[in-house]
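Practice problem: predict the structure.
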Amino acid sequence: MALHLLLMLFVLAATLLTDQAQGISSSASDCCLNYSRRAIPSRLVKSYNIQETALGCAISAVVFITKKDKKICASPDNPTVQRLMKNLDKKVKSDNKNKKQEQPSHSRARSKRQKQ
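Answer:
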């Protein structure tokens, strides 16, 4: 009887610990665990973000997002990775500048309805 009670307490404790561990690990479920060893073709990449250890991940990484929404983890210390990040930043800045130039100006003449 005592052995049966002890076994039930053990199962209950294991269940509670498992639930807590799953809750903790879910916040870092999208973390990179290692870096890609392959070169990352710039034509396939549309954006990137930075993964930091301060946010609960085991390693710092640059996470590139491809045009097909795949994630590629890379070392932030790699000079090729840093160059790709700079090129993407320039592209985004250029795209934003072009969007501003394409917007119609607000100095159009008022329509007849607005004048009345």
